[in-house]
Structures are given as structure tokens and as C-alpha cells.
Design goal:
Length: 257
């Protein structure tokens, strides 16, 4: 384990065997239930199923895991890939720690002969204790939005929950006493979603009532650089090319404080 202390109120612990940030203690209490992990998949919508969703499942986007290739430091090199299929995303994740918080920078290079043409999403998934139940953000809102379904949503500071939010400059999630704030610094904004359901729970439920027993006490907090557009695949054309999240080299950065 690598433990880093910055100031009197912040302490981070890295698991040096896998390079993951496994603990972040603020004011004496850990605010992470699980480490942040890279993710390239979302629970399939009705629009996804007849179009890109088929190859997401075939190429096993929902089964990607970290495969580490080098010695692990605060800057971590990893190979993220599904079982069997010959494709991967080679990533370098750099954690910059300071009294302010932690900057997470991810440089990813997708490659392989069976590389899917598109990804569902590129971003981080965190789980946080149930007390973190208040969300506020600056970006498009108050309703759900995606890169091809957002012009009806206005820029402002909002505090509703449920669904993906796009063009987000910053988002904070708090428990009253403690707060985690994420800022997207590239100027183009990012996406976030906060819920009590994992991607696997959503994907395996055909009806809303099936989610009742799959609800977590923890909050699943997703911070995404980009999302594949929704399109109208369940009853019309697929996602337009300009809104597709193609599997190309990317750089992603977010500040957590």
C-alpha cells in the first residue's frame, strides 16, 4: 500500500499491486466505497439494442477488466480488455495529489483486430457511501441529456438527480458534512450520473420492478469524458455518425476535491 497525506484533512491510499486509489479519507472518514475504474459500457437502451448495442455485447464491452503491464506507481499503465477477444485499451492513468484534491488524467489508446467501432462511454465509475445523497452541478439541466439529445436543456446550476447529464463543468455530491466535487478542465465539459444501481443491474432488468432487489445502499457515481449518442434505433435511424463515440485515442481529465 502507498499512503499519501496532503495537509491535515486529506489522505489517499493506493493499492500498489493494482495501482488503484482504494481509499480517500477526508476529515477522518473514507469517502470511497470502491476504487474508481475505467468503463466503456452503459446499460443498453431500447435504441441501443438494434444498433451499436449488438456489437457492444458481442465485443464484450461489459466484461472489460484491468490488465496491468508495468510496475505500478501513482502513474499507472494498464491494459483494459475483455476475455477472449483480441482488442484492448492501453491506458496511462496519472494521479496528481495536492492539498486541493486529486487530478486524474487518463490517456487511452484502443487497439486490436477485433476492436469495436464505437464505445458506449469513456469514463470513471465510483461507489460512495449512502450518505452522499445530494447532487448539484453546473451544466445542462435540469433533465436528462446526451450529446445528441441536449438542446432542450439549459445551462445553469441544478440539483435534481436521475439520468445522464452532459456539458457539465462541475458536479458536487455531498453528505452534508462532506463533499466531493468533480471539475472537468478541458473547457468542453463532461458527463455525470448518480444512482443506486450498477450497470449490471440495469442491464439485467427488463422491467422497472426488477430493480427493486438490486438497489444498492451505496451511490454509483459515474464521471464520463464522453457518451455515445442515443439515436432512435428502437423505432428509426441509428445514432448519427457525428454523435458516435468512435474507438479512437483519447485523453480524459477530471479534478476531484
Amino acid at each position: 500500500m502507498l499512503r499519501v497525506v496532503a495537509g491535515k484533512d486529506s489522505q489517499w491510499t493506493f493499492d500498489m499491486s493494482c495501482g488503484r486509489l482504494i481509499s480517500w479519507v477526508k476529515k477522518g472518514k473514507n469517502i470511497l466505497s470502491t476504487p474508481p475504474v475505467m468503463d466503456f459500457y452503459r446499460a443498453l437502451t431500447d435504441n441501443d439494442r438494434p444498433q451499436d448495442g449488438k456489437q457492444w455485447i458481442e465485443k464484450r464491452l461489459h466484461q472489460t477488466k484491468d490488465h496491468f503491464s508495468d510496475s505500478v506507481e501513482v502513474s499507472v499503465t494498464a491494459r483494459i480488455a475483455p476475455p477472449v477477444f483480441e482488442w484492448c485499451v492501453n491506458t496511462t492513468t496519472t494521479y496528481t495529489l495536492s492539498p486541493r484534491g486529486v487530478r486524474i488524467h487518463v490517456h487511452g489508446k484502443p487497439q486490436g483486430i477485433n476492436l469495436p467501432k464505437t464505445f458506449a462511454r469513456i469514463g470513471l465509475t465510483l461507489q460512495m457511501p449512502s450518505q452522499f445523497n445530494a447532487v448539484q452541478w453546473f451544466g445542462r439541466g435540469p433533465g436528462e441529456s446526451y450529446r445528441d439529445k441536449k438542446l432542450s436543456q439549459k445551462f445553469g446550476t441544478w440539483s435534481s438527480t436521475g439520468g445522464n447529464r452532459t456539458d457539465v463543468r462541475w458536479v458536487s455530491i455531498s453528505s452534508g458534512e462532506r463533499q466531493l466535487k468533480a471539475t472537468f478542465p478541458f473547457g468542453r465539459g463532461g458527463n455525470f450520473c448518480a444512482s443506486h444501481y450498477t450497470t449490471e443491474a440495469l442491464d439485467s432488468s427488463g422491467h422497472p420492478f426488477e430493480l427493486k432487489e438490486k438497489r444498492l445502499d451505496d451511490v454509483v457515481f459515474r464521471l464520463d469524458f464522453a457518451h455515445h449518442g442515443l439515436g432512435t434505433g428502437s423505432c428509426g435511424p441509428k445514432t448519427l455518425d457525428q454523435y458516435a463515440l468512435t474507438s479512437e485515442e483519447f485523453q480524459y481529465e477530471v479534478w476531484l476535491e
